[in-house]
């Protein structure tokens, strides 16, 4: 019998542990459908805010060779318009749809969450960690009290699971346990890491916003450490591991560290959506070769040694 890849994540049932990470293709129904057809276990939408946001002018994305740097500026059509896409996706897509939401205060988070839930999303991810947009993300998440009151407020209107997306700065068991105490059902670790690059030819910063977020394989060891430490101190917490997953080995590494499921982000720029199939097949083969029946047996397996 083929090994079982199904995982359970704070009440969500995923056919396999791969998830589309927020910000990559999760803006339109048609693209989300392609992600489902490519085999993903779940989808996280692009972060949506109350008002529409244009995002920053180009350049917003650069391939550094050893990783990627981006400062998109959270471009999105705003929750009213996005609800139309989300409603259609929720009706037609069979895998769980996690709505990533952003805001500048509790009221905005409540408003966006309420509309996303109304549109039929399966769960919410609170973006408390985007490192390059003034007034949003990490600026909100750095205030622990504010972050906890946002979690509490959103949870008070949601019967669906609420995940808190964290940066390396919040990836500490004591902070995560405060989030859980405020009602969060799980964490997504990690977002991109605040970073910048300068072109030596022009002698100017490359990104229009100067500061961006670093992603890709170069941040994977940082994600692994964050996931490992959270799993060690908080054995029962549902974790979506994100950071540098570019194939089945990398996905497995995050799972062995303690992730129940893994987000795939910038690798899609290089490998397109076939990466989901590649990860799924690789994990299945590994489980079969090593005599494991289920991927669940490997969650946090590295803690045994
Ligand atoms: C182009 C781009 C856009 C992103 N947009 C968002 C976003 O809107 N919300 C969010 O929470 N994370 C966003 N992220 C962060 C990713 O979801 C992920 O946490 C990070 O890139 C690390 O994973 P990776 O190494 O697989 O890319 C974005 C990343 C990239 C590269």
What report would you give on this structure?
The protein is 36% helix and 18% strand. The protein contains ten helices and 16 strands. The radius of gyration is 18 Å and the shape is globular. α2 packs parallel to α3. The mean pLDDT is 97. It has 305 residues and is α/β, with parallel strands linked by helices. The chain has an eight-stranded parallel β-barrel, surrounded by eight helices. Strands 5-6-14-11 form a four-stranded antiparallel beta sheet, with no helix packed on it. A two-stranded antiparallel sheet has the order 1-2. The structure holds flavin mononucleotide (FMN). Flavin mononucleotide binds next to β6. The site of flavin mononucleotide has 28 residues, from β6.
- Helix and strand run: EEEHEEEHEHEHHEHEEEEEHEHEHH
Structure summary, number of beta strands: 16
What class would the helix/strand composition place it in? alpha/beta
Work out the helicity level. 25-40%
Contiguous low-pLDDT stretches (5 residues minimum) are: none
**Distance between the first and last residues' Cα:** 28 Å
- In round numbers, the mean pLDDT is 97
Q: What is the count of distinct domains?
A: 1
The major beta sheet can be summarized as: 8 strands, parallel, barrel
Radius of gyration: 18 Å
Bound molecules: flavin mononucleotide
> Any idea what the CATH architecture is?
Alpha-Beta Barrel
Quick one: CATH class?
A: Alpha Beta
């Amino acid at each position: 019998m083929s090994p079982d890849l199904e995982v359970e994540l704070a009440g969500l049932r995923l056919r396999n542990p791969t998830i589309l990470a927020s910000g990559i293709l999760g803006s339109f129904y048609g693209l989300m459908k392609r992600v489902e057809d490519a085999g993903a276990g779940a989808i996280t939408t692009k972060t949506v805010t109350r008002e529409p946001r244009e995002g920053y002018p180009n350049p917003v994305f650069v391939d550094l060779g050893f990783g990627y740097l981006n400062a998109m500026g959270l471009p999105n059509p705003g929750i009213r318009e996005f609800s139309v896409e989300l409603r259609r996706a929720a009706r037609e897509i069979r895998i769980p749809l996690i709505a990533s939401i952003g805001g500048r205060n509790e009221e905005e988070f409540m408003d966006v969450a309420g509309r996303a839930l109304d549109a039929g999303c399966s769960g919410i991810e609170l973006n408390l960690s985007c490192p390059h947009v003034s007034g949003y993300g990490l600026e909100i998440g750095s205030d622990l009290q504010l972050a906890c009151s946002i979690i509490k407020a959103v949870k008070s209107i949601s019967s669906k699971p609420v995940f808190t997306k964290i940066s390396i700065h919040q990836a500490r068991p004591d902070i995560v346990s405060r989030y859980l105490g405020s009602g969060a059902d799980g964490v997504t670790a990690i977002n991109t890491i605040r970073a910048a690059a300068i072109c030596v030819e022009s002698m100017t910063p490359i990104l229009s916003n100067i500061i961006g977020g670093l992603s890709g394989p170069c941040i994977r060891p940082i994600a692994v450490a964050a996931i490992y430490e959270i799993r060690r101190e908080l054995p029962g917490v549902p974790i979506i591991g994100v950071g540098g997953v570019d194939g089945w080995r990398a996905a497995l590494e995050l799972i062995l560290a303690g992730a129940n499921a893994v987000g795939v982000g910038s690798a899609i720029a290089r490998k397109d959506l076939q990466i989901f199939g590649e990860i799924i097949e690789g994990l299945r083969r590994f489980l079969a070769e090593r005599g494991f029946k289920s991927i669940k047996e490997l969650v946090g397996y590295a803690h045994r040694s």
